[in-house]
Amino acid sequence: MASERDRAESRPLSDLVEELLAHEGPLPIVTAGEPVLRRTAEPFDGQLSPDLLARFVAALRATMHAAPGVGLAAPQVGVSLRIAVIEDPAPVPEEVRLARGRVPLPFRVLVNPAYEAVGSYRDAFFEGCLSVPGWQAVVARHAKVRLRALDEHGRAVDEEFSGWPARIVQHETDHLNGALYLDHAELRSLSSNQAMADRWNAPTPADAARALGFLLPD
Ligand code: ZN
Fold first, then answer.
1. 3-class SS at 60?
2. CATH assignment of 4-212, given 2.60.40.3880, 3.90.45.10, 3.30.365.10, 3.40.120.10?
3. pLDDT above 90: percentage of residues in the chain
4. Who surrounds ion ligand 1 at CB < 5 A?
5. φ, ψ for residue 154, nearest 5 deg
6. 211 Cβ contact partners less than 8 Å away, ≥ 6 residues apart
7. Rounded mean pLDDT of 3-19?
8. CA of 80 to the centre of ligand 1 (A)
9. The pTM is what?
10. What distance in angstroms lies between residue 1's CA and the mean position of ligand 1's atoms?
11. Contact 117/82 with Cβ under 8 angstroms?
12. Can you tell me the distance from the alpha carbon of 138 to that of 135, in angstroms, rounded to the nearest whole number?
């Protein structure tokens, strides 16, 4: 017999999104352990009308700002569609900007995104996720990626990203494939927000690697 929850998950996604948007304020963000974060999200193919898509994207953006975060994928609000938003004003000190390549990333909507590595260089830095609150860990990621996607108007995007924007693109696209950053993190680097604030705010995780006992890519 279908549970209440099973029935909820078999409803049209447009009904689910309408219901989410009926409430005021930021959308509730689901956290690790919710199956929607582990499913491969459906390609967007008109499941939401243009008006509903525009309102959903606006709500994702407002939710990302309120969190605050630099990216949010639809499954993180319980909607299994291949849609994500990214935006990073990058309010960081110069030394952090230089070490991490954290440059401002204007607001973007990624619809049906996929990425591939450009070159073999990898960068490792602490990152976190709004669906894994309270923790951060070091993840080695492609330093440069080629992103192919559609924008919110259905126009094709084919663009290269490097530095922190490349990290954001990979993190958010991975969500649409049911992956969390912890799946490929250095687990020995796992640090609470308190430990991050107290100890690991240097521009690179080199000190953390020595103290906690994990390796960084060459
Ligand atoms: Zn995330």
1. helix
2. 3.90.45.10
3. 94
4. 129
5. 85, 10
6. 199
7. 78
8. 14
9. 0.94
10. 33
11. no
12. 11
- Residue 162 corresponds to which amino acid? S
> Which residues form the catalytic set?
172
CA distance 198 to 213: 18
Partnered with residue 186 across adjacent β-strands are 138
Radius of gyration from C-alpha coordinates of the chain: 18
Q: What is residue 78's DSSP assignment? A: T
Per-residue pLDDT of 80-99, as tens digits, reads 999 999 999 999 999 999 99
Report CA(171)–ligand 1 centroid distance (Å).
Answer: 6
As a whole number of angstroms, the distance between CA 135 and CA 6 comes to 30
Q: How far is the CA of 169 from the centre of ligand 1 (A)?
A: 11
Beta carbons within 8 Å of 120's beta carbon, 6+ residues apart:
none
Q: What's the CA-to-centroid distance between 69 and ligand 1, angstroms?
A: 9
